[in-house]
From TrEMBL, chain A:
Family from the record: Belongs to the succinate dehydrogenase/fumarate reductase iron-sulfur protein family.
InterPro entries listed in its UniProt record: 2Fe-2S_ferredoxin-like_sf, 2Fe-2S_ferredoxin-type, 2Fe2S_fd_BS, 4Fe4S_Fe-S-bd, Beta-grasp_dom_sf, Helical_ferredxn, SDH/FRD_Iron-Sulfur, Succ_DH/fum_Rdtase_N
MF GO annotations: 2 iron, 2 sulfur cluster binding; electron transfer activity
Cofactor(s) for this UniProt protein: [2Fe-2S] cluster; [3Fe-4S] cluster
4Fe-4S ferredoxin-type domain sequence ranges: 151-181
GO biological process per UniProt: aerobic respiration; respiratory electron transport chain
Domain called 2Fe-2S ferredoxin-type: residue spans: 1-103
The protein's name: Fumarate reductase
PROSITE patterns, A to Z: 2FE2S_FER_1, 2FE2S_FER_2, 4FE4S_FER_2
SUPFAM superfamilies: 2Fe-2S ferredoxin-like, alpha-helical ferredoxin
Automatic annotation (TrEMBL), chain B:
Organism taxonomic ancestry: Bacteria, Pseudomonadati, Bacteroidota, Flavobacteriia, Flavobacteriales
Official protein name in the record: succinate dehydrogenase
Domain of life, source organism: Bacteria
Pfam families, alphabetized: FAD_binding_2 (PF00890), Succ_DH_flav_C (PF02910)
Organism: Aquimarina aggregata
One term of GO molecular function: succinate dehydrogenase (quinone) activity
Record's bilayer topology term: Peripheral membrane protein
Positions annotated as active site in the UniProt record: R338
Compartments reported by the entry: Cell membrane
SUPFAM superfamilies, alphabetized: FAD/NAD(P)-binding domain, Succinate dehydrogenase/fumarate reductase flavoprotein C-terminal domain, Succinate dehydrogenase/fumarate reductase flavoprotein, catalytic domain
Family, per entry: Belongs to the FAD-dependent oxidoreductase 2 family. FRD/SDH subfamily.
Cofactors required: FAD
Automatic annotation (TrEMBL), chain C:
InterPro entries hit by this protein: Cytochrome_b-558, SQR/QFR_C/D
Swiss-Prot/TrEMBL keywords: Membrane, Transmembrane, Transmembrane helix
Protein name per UniProt: Succinate dehydrogenase
GO cellular component: membrane
Transmembrane segments: 55-80, 101-122, 158-176, 196-217
Keyword Cytoplasm found: no
NCBIfam families, A to Z: sdhC_b558_fam (TIGR02046)
Gene3D superfamilies: Fumarate reductase/succinate dehydrogenase, transmembrane subunit
Classification via CDD domains: SQR_TypeB_2_TM
């Protein structure tokens, strides 16, 4: 199939960017979206132009690197997939496809379609851990039984790949789904209880400082999340936060 | 006597590690504050090492090319992590884990290292649970286990099909705690371009800030390389796009010996290549072989018709199918080890029986499992005369519960419903057992330069068992390296900060800049990917699943010529002083072009078939095992450690003889 | 506590609680209005009570006014902050693919409701305040119904009221149900609670519309 691509090009963080049009030909349905961009880039390199820069690594939907806003939706029109798992068979010959970086004040553009998501890292530095030394002298793993449902919910929250689709989809560029997934994973486990109060306060505080918007419960994040992280996590974080604020 | 000293402690096998820990030197907490350690790579090995070293009090700097440590490719590991916990009471023990790992590795790993790995395996699980890793649990709230290929016990801990992700996030959370305390400085989107040696010791690295293009000097008292494997030398592999050998190869060029480069694991159950555009391969968990039956058509005409789309696999009757693994290996059937299954698939496809349009795929069929589970389920749910549709539906539900996410992934990629038509699979490069040679302390032949995880060669011999990579990475990072590195650093308590304005750093930076300039200055004929794909083809065809002398000799020449062409004609657009992914790729491919040649040389030297390395000249000539891999313990019971001497083909071989005092060497038989 | 008010979550919770309070008030307001279409006497009686009871006048009324002001001021503050969180907008944004129109346009439905409140205050509350606390006019417990009827004589005003109630539905459709999520209520009862909230957000404004139209066509 032949496609028209409208791609955001921006030299670096301080330059102004713009949408540039490109044509690609001979795209096959079996290609992933990123392989389609590989074709474009090979074409650009041959012409002596600079290829389009985008984040990608594992190309199997788990590292969370790829991050494109495709036709107005993070990771494109398919559900429960990352861009690297989106296949071109979801598009038709002659389509025009808008490809933009994930937009948020807290995610400044590095180059072209690549953004800086270190805000997510800083939220996790603030409290996304259990303070236990790696001495090997901790208690036996089976000394802490965990209710299976809680363990499963904690796992579901922990499958967040930190791609930022939630922020990109949210009309307010809010990072509540991401932060709440991280808070929930620990809040649901007995190991996480000891530091629960400090953790939620510190992580929410850092989230606010990064300049993300507020949650208005539109639910766009949950729909666009490639891992299907549930809105329940946000409600849980709200509870945890209120509890923690009252406790001080 | 070899110049290689593995520094294996004296004494009985089971006491070596304890005794060693008791006798090595320690650094007191006040002095640790004055010692810097660089960790390159933040996967399971690097992340866990960085966190633990920082916890102990060292000042740690971590480097990764990704935008966050959490994205390292350990995250993609699916199946699980082994530990000799014996929670199932099925007779597991440290010794059994040790034994299985040595045997699985086809007797090409060190007894002492592997036993230590088994000893600390239980600690890993304790540690990970304490830091909140949500492993799968039973209804009683205790941890669940699953079984994996090649062993007789259930010792694999897992978190659905995302164990690697959960363990990596655990290590990353431990890192976060130290970053928050200021003990780890994380340099993300940075790539190590060279190792800096001062007075023969590793004292720092030269790194490129991938965002600004700036070349930076970083000094430390020791450098830990945990930069993963080099499967991407094949272009197509299950590794991440960015996975590369640069850190290890740069250290090799600075004097670290490279061990067993030819030991590559080719995983049998990957999604086949669909065309030339393909950029990487996707693994499907090995667990699928528990229920799937592997086959190709019996008649070559049928295979031909299927390839042309004239025939559907479901139209072939039972007797028209060749379940070749069940035929060749009646005892193990579809559950033969990875290397055996991979070679058998290649053999059938090479003979013209492949089933997708490229001719490089075999079927993995769940139809009989669906029937079997469906009938069982019908019986247990009180359905006495279930219709064929009901059986099928019930059976599909059972399969979905077990493998739902994998089936969904397959459907997304291939656009076929694997519940209705058999899956297609083909082997793909997955893991490299070879790596930097390290002694018992995980130190390379460069003092002060350590290697951990997949980047070293130590524990898996010639073949790695499933669910052991995660175990080794975390064992090295959490429980081995932090102890052994102290022994070395104890000499450095009075050294003080290592300055970076020295001639050694000047020279290393100049070397790096010259190299970048040379890469940017190619004539501009072909893109980096063009060379990478060509290299991959040579590697796959001549150094892939089975190798022979002639092919390997040709590979050495072809890679050498390709490398020469690369340096003359590669095209790297853009400039070196800003973000430039093509330049990053070019540097990595340049190193693969050297490693590939050494790989072929190593494979040529090893004239035996063992584990992941199958030499066509070394097969059983007669008897029940006729045609199967023939290991040669008399001549090849050693680790090949290669010393850099300029061109890869001139590398000098050093042999570390492997001593087996606790295990009897046997032939692996799966008939 | 100051941290509590500054944090995004606390603001959300405050927004939800003030919204829930207004929802409750709406129910009460509707109940009284509804009596007007079948009994002028009951309506007068209730209105008289509300208009003269000191607790209602000097405790509940200020609380309500504070609630309304807080809700819309906070709504503006959050909207501005949210706008700033994405400085460069998308060239193409397919919001409809993942979220309802109502949830994405609370500020607009809210603004319409706010404008309506202006009209409504001008119609009823201001004359009421003038009547009671400026002119100190003598209290007449039967004046409420005729005044009400008089206001709905104009088809334009009636139309504006009806239109505003439609927007109120849109506002409540997202706002009411989502307030549960904001205060951390998301469990097995959520689906039922959400259904109730959505039913409420249709039934109550529809009821107001019925009252307005009934009064308009019931001019003596």
């Amino acid at each position: 199939m032949n496609l028209t691509l409208k791609i955001w090009r921006q030299k670096d963080a301080s330059s102004k960017g713009a949408i540039v049009d490109y044509q690609v030909k001979g795209i096959e349905g079996d290609m992933s979206f990123l392989e389609m961009l590989d074709v474009l880039n090979e074409q650009l390199i041959t012409k002596g132009e600079e290829p389009v820069v985008f984040d990608h690594d594992c190309r199997e939907g788990i590292c969370g690197s790829c991050s494109l806003q495709i036709n107005g939706e993070p990771h494109g029109p398919d559900r429960l997939v990352t861009t690297c798992q989106l296949h071109m068979r979801k598009f038709n010959d002659g389509d025009t496809i808008y490809i933009e970086p994930f937009r948020a004040k807290a995610f400044p553009v590095v180059k072209d379609l690549m953004v800086d998501r270190s805000a997510f890292d800083r939220i996790q530095h603030a409290g996304g851990y259990i303070s236990v030394n790696t001495s090997g002298n901790t208690i036996d793993a089976n000394a802490i039984p965990v209710n299976k449902d809680n363990a499963d919910d904690a796992f579901a929250a922990a499958t967040c790949i930190g791609c930022g689709a939630c922020v990109a989809a949210c009309k307010n560029a809010s990072a509540m789904l991401f932060t709440s997934a991280k808070v929930s994973q620990f809040a649901l486990l007995p190991q996480g209880q000891v530091e629960a109060t400090d953790r939620v306060l510190a992580m929410v505080n850092q989230m606010d400082e990064e300049g993300f918007g507020n949650c208005t419960n539109t639910g766009a994040c949950e729909i666009e999340c490639p891992k299907g992280i549930s809105l329940e996590n946000i409600a849980r974080m709200n509870r945890e936060y209120l509890k923690a604020s009252i406790k001080g | 006597m070899s110049i290689l000293d593995s520094k294996i402690p004296e004494g009985p096998l089971a006491d070596k590690w304890t005794k060693h820990k008791n006798t090595i030197n320690l650094v007191n907490p006040a002095n640790k504050r004055n010692i810097d350690v660089i960790v390159v790579g933040t996967g399971l090995a690097g992340g866990s090492a960085a966190a633990t070293l920082a916890e102990l009090g060292y000042n740690v700097k971590t480097f990764c090319y990704q935008d966050s440590p959490r994205r390292a490719h350990s995250i993609a590991a699916q199946g699980g992590i082994n530990a000799a916990k014996n929670y199932q009471g099925d007779g597991d023990s440290n010794y059994r884990l040790f034994y299985d790992t040595i045997k699985g590795g086809d007797y090409r790993s060190r007894e002492a290292n592997v036993h230590r790995l088994a000893e600390v395996s239980g600690n890993i699980i304790d540690q990970c649970v304490a830091q909140g890793v949500p492993f799968a649990r039973e209804y009683g709230g205790l941890l669940d286990n699953r079984s994996f290929g090649g062993v007789l016990v259930s010792r694999t801990f897992y978190a659905k099909g995302q164990t690697g992700q959960q363990l990596l996030l655990g290590a990353y959370s431990a890192m976060n705690r130290q970053i928050n305390r200021g003990k780890i400085q994380a340099f993300n989107r940075h790539e190590m371009l060279d190792l800096v040696k001062v007075d023969g010791k590793a004292r720092g690295i030269i790194a490129r800030n991938l965002v600004t293009g700036e070349i930076e000097r970083h000094s430390a008292h020791a450098v830990v390389l945990a930069s993963g494997g080099y499967g991407n030398v094949f272009f197509l592999s299950t590794n991440a796009m960015g996975s590369n050998v640069m850190a290890a190869w740069r250290a090799h060029r600075r004097g670290a010996f490279f061990a067993n480069p030819c030991y590559t694991q080719i995983h049998p159950t990957c999604i086949p290549v669909s065309g030339d555009h393909q950029s990487k391969l996707t693994l499907m968990s090995e667990s699928l072989r528990n229920d799937g039956r592997i086959w190709v058509p019996k008649r070559i005409e049928d295979a031909q018709a299927i390839r042309e789309g004239k025939l559907k696999p479901t139209q072939l009757a039972e007797e028209e199918r060749d379940y070749y693994l069940e035929r060749r290996y009646p005892a193990f059937g579809n559950l033969v080890p990875r290397d055996v299954a991979s070679r058998a698939a290649k053999e059938r496809c090479d003979a013209g029986f492949g089933v997708n349009k490229t001719g490089e795929a075999v079927y993995l069929d769940f139809a009989s499992a669906i029937q079997r589970y469906g009938k069982e389920k019908a019986l247990t749910s009180g359905l006495h005369n279930p219709s064929a549709d009901q059986v099928r539906e019930l059976g599909e539900k059972v399969i979905e519960d077990k493998y739902g996410n994998l089936f969904q992934m397959y459907e997304k990629i291939v656009d076929e419903n694997p519940y209705k038509t058999p899956m297609m699979i083909y082997p793909a490069v997955h893991y490299t057992m070879g790596g930097l040679w390290v002694d018992y302390n995980l130190q390379t032949t460069v003092p002060g330069c350590y290697a951990a995880g997949e980047a070293n060669f130590s524990d898996h011999g010639a073949n790695r068992l499933g669910a052991s990579a995660l175990m080794q990475g975390l064992a090295d990072g959490y429980f081995v390296l932090p102890y052994t590195i102290g022994d070395y650093l104890s000499q450095d308590i009075r050294t003080g900060k290592i300055p970076t304005d020295t001639p050694e750093f000047d020279q290393a930076e100049k070397d790096v800049k010259d190299r970048i300039e040379k890469l940017m200055g190619g004539s501009g004929e072909h893109s980096v990917d063009y060379y990478h794909k060509k290299l991959g083809k040579i590697m796959w065809n001549k150094c892939g699943m089975s190798r022979n002398e002639q092919g390997l000799k040709e590979a050495i020449e072809e890679i050498s010529a390709l490398r020469e062409d690369f340096w003359k004609n590669v095209k790297v657009p853009g400039d070196a002083n800003s973000m430039n992914p093509e330049l990053e790729k070019a540097g990595r491919v340049a190193d693969f072009l050297e490693l590939g040649e050494l790989f072929a040389k190593d494979a040529l030297d090893r004239n035996e078939s063992c584990g992941g390395h199958f030499r066509e000249e070394s097969v059983e000539q007669s008897g029940e095992q006729k045609g199967e891999a023939l290991r040669d313990d008399k001549n090849f019971k050693y680790v090949s450690a290669w010393e850099y001497k300029g061109e890869p083909k001139d590398a000098q071989l050093h042999k570390e003889d492997l001593v087996f005092e606790n295990i009897e060497l046997k032939t692996r038989s799966y008939k | 506590m100051s941290g509590l008010i500054k944090s995004s979550i606390a603001r959300k919770v405050a927004m939800a609680l003030s919204g829930l309070f207004l929802v409750f008030f709406l129910l009460q307001h509707f109940t009284i209005n509804f009596t007007s279409i079948f009994s002028a006497d009951i309506f007068n009686e209730l209105s008289h009570f509300m208009g003269t009871n000191p607790v209602v006048q000097f405790v509940l009324q200020p609380v309500l006014i504070f609630g309304v002001i807080f809700h819309f001021v906070m709504g503006f503050v959050l909207e501005l902050k949210n706008n700033k969180a994405r400085a460069v907008k998308y060239a193409k944004y397919n919001g409809g693919a993942n979220a309802s129109w109502m949830s994405r346009n609370m500020i607009y439905s809210g603004l319409v409701v706010l404008a309506f409140l202006g009209l409504h205050f001008y119609d009823f509350w201001v004359p009421e305040m003038v009547h009671k606390y400026i002119e100190f006019a003598p209290e007449d417990p039967t004046r409420y119904y005729p005044e009400l009827l008089h206001k709905f004589e104009s088809p334009v005003r009636t139309g504006l009221y009806v239109l505003s109630f439609v927007f109120l539905t849109l506002h409540l459709w997202h706002g009411f149900a989502s307030s549960f999520q904001s205060v951390g209520f998301n469990n097995k009862y959520s689906a039922a609670a959400s259904k109730f909230a959505k039913a409420f957000s249709i039934v109550i404004p529809l009821g107001f519309i019925v009252v307005a139209i009934a009064l308009h066509f019931n001019q003596h």
